[in-house]
Specification:
Elements: E1 4-8, E2 15-20, H1 24-43, H2 46-62, H3 64-75, H4 79-97, E3 107-110, E4 113-121, E5 124-128, H5 134-147, E6 151-155, H6 162-173, E7 181-183, H7 188-197, E8 203-207, H8 210-220, E9 226-230, E10 236-239, H9 245-257, E11 269-273, H10 277-289, H11 309-317, E12 325-328, E13 342-344, H12 352-355, E14 362-368, H13 371-379, E15 387-390, H14 394-403, E16 410-411, E17 430-431, E18 444-452
Parallel strand pairs: 5-6, 5-8, 6-7, 8-9, 10-11, 10-15, 11-14, 13-14, 15-16
Antiparallel strand pairs: 1-2, 3-4, 4-18, 9-17, 12-13
Helix pairs in contact: 1-7, 2-4, 3-4, 4-5, 9-10
The protein binds nicotinamide-adenine-dinucleotide (NAD).
The site of nicotinamide-adenine-dinucleotide has 31 residues, from helix 7 and helix 8.
Length: about 450
């Protein structure tokens, strides 16, 4: 096997970079460096660790445009989206820079002394991330992990390692000590698997497919490693007939075709009350046809290519099942892994496209009869990550929001992630929460201390 990995630009299929390929030995070395750096990093005074994270946020902000262009080219995402994502990376480090001084414990009344809790870092944390939001998802893990006093080994996806590699240089430029952040680029089956099995790695924070997440949870069991999993999704965008249909139709395309549909929160099932189906589709069509699909570096582009030839083959296979194409947008010809945004309607809820994660720009529009039917269809999936509810009836919005089995929901909007609010899945979309105050729970151990007072 070559010791170099060729990294492609999905919009052109050209080689963008060649990077060293890490394997088991490199994973062991990175873990050893992280372990060596741990005592000094966790012993830093809370305000010192906060200052280091603010310094890192400053350096990232100074390099925001460079990182955005690199991410747009390597992941094939629209430059305007990439800029927004890099902004979120900066904000994530700023938010968790406040955490070291706010890692509070409890005091608990007991007999014979004082009992109290403190939060300790977990230790060395392995971060394994996917290719769809490369640096953003890494930052959701890096920032709380570092804030809590852990050291880390980050293994980005082999297809999109470039921003993580640049990040590792910026970490040192910001003055963080060597060994606190280690980045390894290598295959999941060797390099990633070694992190999962390594006895000196205390926790794995993983984002990726449900299939790989399942195997990681099984392997991690051998060393009782802590694991958090952010996995796949098949989220429902539920549109009731009494909704502002114009607003719901205008917002639906970016909720499923954003990042070319390669988004774990993609609302790839649009559930529409049957009585509003015809009108909703008529309102949706011009928005889908107007989507600007093209060169990720063009400021006007709204959707880029898929990540790889393999992903294009997988996505295209969903159109071979005979589900009716209602309408589609456009895609460029020539090199690049392009797929037009495509709307299928009406789709049988048992069809493959209604059940499996497409991870590409295909939306399945499914009719429902009433509120109970909408909830039943929304929950008829192994996944439970995200979703939306569009209605003018506030009480119904809240009833449905409580009944839908997902970790994140929005009403009359399609948002899923914010730096300040928890994000994560129900069911086979994973366990653990990232972002917001809750992420720190996943990177700390609670220790109880009893001090006898001799009473
Ligand atoms: P993937 O599961 O194929 O790979 C993710 C990462 O795991 C990569 O770094 C890969 O190298 C590594 N990996 C693969 N096999 C491994 C193994 N045996 N041991 C250790 N590491 C291994 O996922 P992907 O194709 O990169 O990303 C797409 C998937 O990620 C989709 O299913 C999507 O829904 C999911 N995703 C989820 C979220 C979320 O927050 N819930 C966010 C983004 C993507």
């Amino acid at each position: 096997m070559s010791d170099r990995l060729a990294v492609l630009e999905p919009a052109t299929e050209a080689v963008l970079a060649e990077v060293p390929r890490a394997g088991v030995d490199e994973a062991d070395e990175a873990v050893a460096r992280a372990r060596e750096a741990l005592p000094a990093w966790r012993a830093l005074a809370p305000a010192e660790r906060a200052r280091a994270l603010h310094a890192l946020a400053d350096v990232l902000a100074e390099h925001l445009e460079e990182l955005a262009v690199l991410e747009a080219r390597n992941a094939g995402k629209a430059i305007t989206d990439a800029r927004g994502e890099m902004g979120m990376v900066v904000d994530t480090f700023r938010y968790y820079a406040g955490a070291p001084e706010r890692l509070l414990g409890d005091t608990i009344p007991v007999a014979g002394g004082q009992a109290f809790t403190v939060r300790e870092p977990v230790g060395v944390v392995g971060l394994i991330t996917p290719w769809n939001f490369p640096l953003t998802i890494a930052a959701w893990k890096l920032a709380p992990a570092l804030a809590a006093g852990n050291t880390v080994v980050l293994k980005p996806a082999e297809l999109t390692p470039l921003t993580a590699l640049r990040f590792s240089e910026l970490v040192l430029a910001a003055g963080l000590p060597e060994g606190v952040v280690n980045v390894l680029v290598g295959p999941g089956r060797t390099c990633g698997q070694r992190l999962v099995e390594h006895p000196d790695v205390n926790k794995i924070a993983f984002t990726g497919s449900t299939e790989v997440g399942r195997s990681i949870a099984a392997s991690a069991a051998a060393t009782i490693k802590r694991v958090t999993l952010e996995l796949g999704g098949k989220s429902a965008n539920i549109v009731f007939a009494d909704a502002d249909l114009e607003a719901a139709a205008a917002a639906a395309p970016s909720a499923v075709f954003g990042n070319a549909g390669q988004d774990c929160c993609a609302r790839s099932r649009i559930l529409v009350e049957a009585s509003a189906m015809e009108r909703f589709l008529a309102l949706l069509e011009p928005h889908v046809k107007a989507l600007r699909v093209g060169d990720p570096l063009d400021e006007a582009t709204e959707m880029g290519p898929l990540i790889s030839a393999a992903q294009l083959t997988t996505v295209a296979s969903f159109l071979d099942d005979g589900d009716p194409v209602a309408f589609a947008g456009s895609a460029p010809d020539g090199p690049g892994f392009w797929h037009a945004p495509t709307v299928l309607a009406p789709v049988d809820p048992h069809a493959r496209v209604a059940r499996e994660e497409v991870f590409g720009p295909i939306a399945a529009v499914i009719p429902f009869t009433d509120e109970a039917d909408a909830v039943r269809l929304a929950n008829d999936t192994i996944y439970g990550l995200s979703g939306s509810i569009w209605t003018r009836d506030g009480a119904r919005a809240l009833r449905v929001a409580r009944a839908v089995e997902t970790g994140v929901l929005s009403i009359n909007a399609n948002t899923s992630v914010r730096v300040t609010t928890p994000f994560g899945g129900f069911k086979q979309s994973g366990y653990g929460r990232e972002l917001g105050p809750h992420a720190l729970d996943a990177y700390t151990e609670v220790k109880t201390i009893f001090y006898a007072t001799g009473e």
